[in-house]
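Example with several molecule types.
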Amino acid sequence: MSNSKPEKGIWKIIGASSLGTLIEWYDFYIFGSLATVIASQFFPQTNPTAALLSTLATFAAGFIVRPFGALVFGRLGDLVGRKYTFLLTLILMGGSTFAIGLVPSYESIGFAAPVIILVLRLIQGLALGGEYGGAATYVAEHAPPHRRGFFTSWIQTTATLGLFVSLGVILLVRHGLDSDVNRSIEKFNEWGWRIPFLVSILLVGVSIYIRLKMNESPLFAKLKSEGKVSSNPLKESFAHKTNLKMVLLALFGATMGQGVVWYTGQFYAQSFIETVCKVDFEQSRTILIWAILFATPFFVVFGSWSDKVGRKWIMMGGMLLAIIFYRPIYQQFLTETNTSAYQTKQLAAESDALVLAETINGKEITTTTVVKTFTDGSSYTEKTIQRAGENNSTVLQLDKKLTTGVYWKFVFLVFIQVIFVTMVYGPIAAFLVEMFPTKIRYTSMSLPYHIGNGVFGGLTPFIALLLTTINTDDKLVGLSYPIAISLVCLVIGVLYVSNKTNTDVHE
Amino acid sequence: MINLLKKWLGWVWMLLGPLSIYYLAKTAAAEIARHPVTDTKIQWAVFILVALPIAAGLVIFGWYAWKEEYNK
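Resulting structure tokens for the full complex:
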């Protein structure tokens, strides 16, 4: 496998595997990115049952169904083969995503709408749980041992690129439905949100066609021809001490920390900039888009480097840097968006005050909204809320628009966090593949990966938010969760994980 | 020396499993009491349901560390 001809062939394998995996991530993320619009279309808060289904769709898909999908499809992949299993996950993901775009709203068909959406979202979670392990295993089993980190790192770019494409498609469609921006957004919220879901079928169609032309993994095919395929992959993976101890090590010494670093650097960063720093909707998203674009090549850089120096220390280095730099980075976000510092700036314009008086729960509330624009190009919307009979009013500064300089500083700070992501995530596919034998590899690596990412990583926004409600004085308290999890994972990883590379994965 | 540290840290991992479940259950009870709606209950039920096998896994990991399985 080390001569140039087979290496040429591997690019086809990487291309076909990565495209499908990227599409699956795209499909999974557009639901999350459009959660607010979907909630208004299918899960009206006025209906308690629909609201309940919404909670289930949010939590169950990521936390329960993803690891469950890892078990179901992992087992299938070790029994019938990698190729047909990750073809099936692609069909399930593409089909359910397309179907979400077709489901009539709650207004049209009533209670059936949220039920159908919930079922389709659960299928998405199930399919995602089966996809990654298949793609990573498939590429790794084709790759020459001395370049396994490099070749599998292309698969590692797909999760971040899937997020990038989903954000890009949503922004494009949101602005492309009408020449008037406000009208375009209105159309997007009415029906345009369906387009990113419907588009998926074309991408999936192409990917299925490509994957159908691919051959089975040579290692699995050999195993099958020799009759050495596992008869019970679940039992062999989790009931035998030799393998179970490696599954646990993979989870607590690698994927757990990797999951929280991944989610903090990409999801929590964007959410913090938008909801805590109150930066404008579009700026908070384009900051992430630029950061991802600049940092993505580093998945390949670190994956390739791991072939030379080993997987362990690059991943542990990423976790250590995250632990050290998270608080200083997020402190910068707060400092730069602190509007009390705006007092020294020169006001360029102030809009006419928009006064809205309303009665809520029998209490009269007056909201005054003013948009302040400064000479350096920054601006924010100031809302003053005055409750009748109270002397003090509440003043909120929202929709902050950053100056060009601060905007690019934020891009750099998010970019640094995505670099940590590339360090922990770039080499991890090769690391996981090398831990387990061929006959139970798909099952054994999928479960720790999806618990690490789906559960530990997926919990990041909720735990962070929860911590901020417990300790309201410290706006950075939400970071305690990823820092603590990374720290435990770092200790376990440094002490218990070995730094082997070039391991023979043919057994 | 490192092997000894790996072995004795096994106890830390074994204790961390039940401690994290205790902390999670305590927080869940407090949060449900603060917002006694079905949404909160479902959300925390899912968290605990998922955390239980993970905590059990951490205990087993600690046990293997104590038994020097990772020193071999």
